[in-house]
């Protein structure tokens, strides 16, 4: 994938492939990724969508990363999942009661122009405003509720990490050594 701002991975079964900066880790260990932006605008959304799409091109365990499953939907399909979030400290959209609808519509418009499915980004967090579920265009307005967007995101993240870690098989790091070519 492209370089990520923050990645959360299974350290217990993840040796660094190359002790470099930035480090490389196997896609089989990637559980979540976060892109961080100072001010969200159309260009930053485009950049984040490209990064999210690059993650979806990876094939952990020879499979694709799954989209978010609907509440109650079984996860016994064997597909790994990587929660992808965008954090922005602010947005260039003017404040207003409809900021969330405008932000979700702008995100959807940029994704459509790039032919990237909305499901490639799970959560869009604008720190002082709220959180948006990108695939469904719904969210939580922190200004109206007085509850921090990061609090909601953190609960989603922890829930995802606990479930996904239990579902993931251990990785066979030999797949990266090319053992099938040994003679």
SSE topology sketch:
Blueprint (H helix, E strand, L loop, with lengths): L5 E4 L20 E11 L1 H15 L26 E9 L7 H16 L8 E4 L3 E4 L4 E4 H4 L3 H19 L16
Parallel strand pairs: 2-3, 3-4
Antiparallel strand pairs: 1-2, 4-5, 5-6
Helix pairs in contact: 1-2
3D architecture notes:
- This protein has 183 residues and is an alpha/beta fold.
- The chain is built from 4 helices and 6 strands, in the order E-E-H-E-H-E-E-E-H-H.
- The protein has helices spanning 42-56, 99-114, 142-145, 149-167; strands at 6-9, 30-40, 83-91, 123-126, 130-133, 138-141.
- The radius of gyration is 17 Å and the shape is elongated.
- The model has no long low-confidence stretch (mean pLDDT 87).
Key phrases:
183 residues, alpha/beta, six-stranded mixed beta sheet, 4 helices, 20% strand
Low-confidence stretches: none
Q: Main β-sheet, in a few words?
A: 6 strands, mixed
> Structural class, from helix and strand content?
alpha/beta
Global morphology: elongated
Helical residues, percent = 25-40%
Task: Write a brief caption for the model.
The chain has helices at residues 42-56, 99-114, 142-145, 149-167, and strands at 6-9, 30-40, 83-91, 123-126, 130-133, 138-141.
């Amino acid at each position: 994938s492209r370089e990520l701002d923050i990645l959360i991975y299974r350290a217990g079964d993840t040796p660094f492939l190359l002790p470099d900066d930035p480090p490389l880790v196997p896609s089989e260990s990637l559980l979540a990724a976060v892109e961080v932006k100072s001010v969200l605008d159309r260009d930053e959304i485009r950049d984040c969508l490209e990064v999210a799409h690059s993650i979806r091109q990876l094939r952990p365990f020879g499979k694709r990363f799954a989209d978010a499953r609907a509440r109650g939907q079984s996860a016994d399909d064997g597909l790994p999942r990587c929660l992808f979030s965008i954090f922005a400290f602010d947005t260039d959209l003017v404040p207003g009661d409809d900021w969330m609808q405008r932000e979700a519509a702008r995100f959807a418009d940029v994704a459509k122009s790039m032919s990237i499915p909305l499901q490639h980004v799970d959560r869009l967090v604008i720190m002082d405003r709220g959180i948006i579920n990108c695939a469904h265009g719904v969210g939580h307005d922190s200004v109206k509720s007085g509850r921090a967007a990061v609090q909601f995101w953190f609960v989603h993240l922890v829930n995802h990490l606990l479930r996904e870690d239990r579902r993931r098989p251990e990785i066979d790091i030999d797949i990266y050594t090319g053992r099938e070519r040994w003679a």
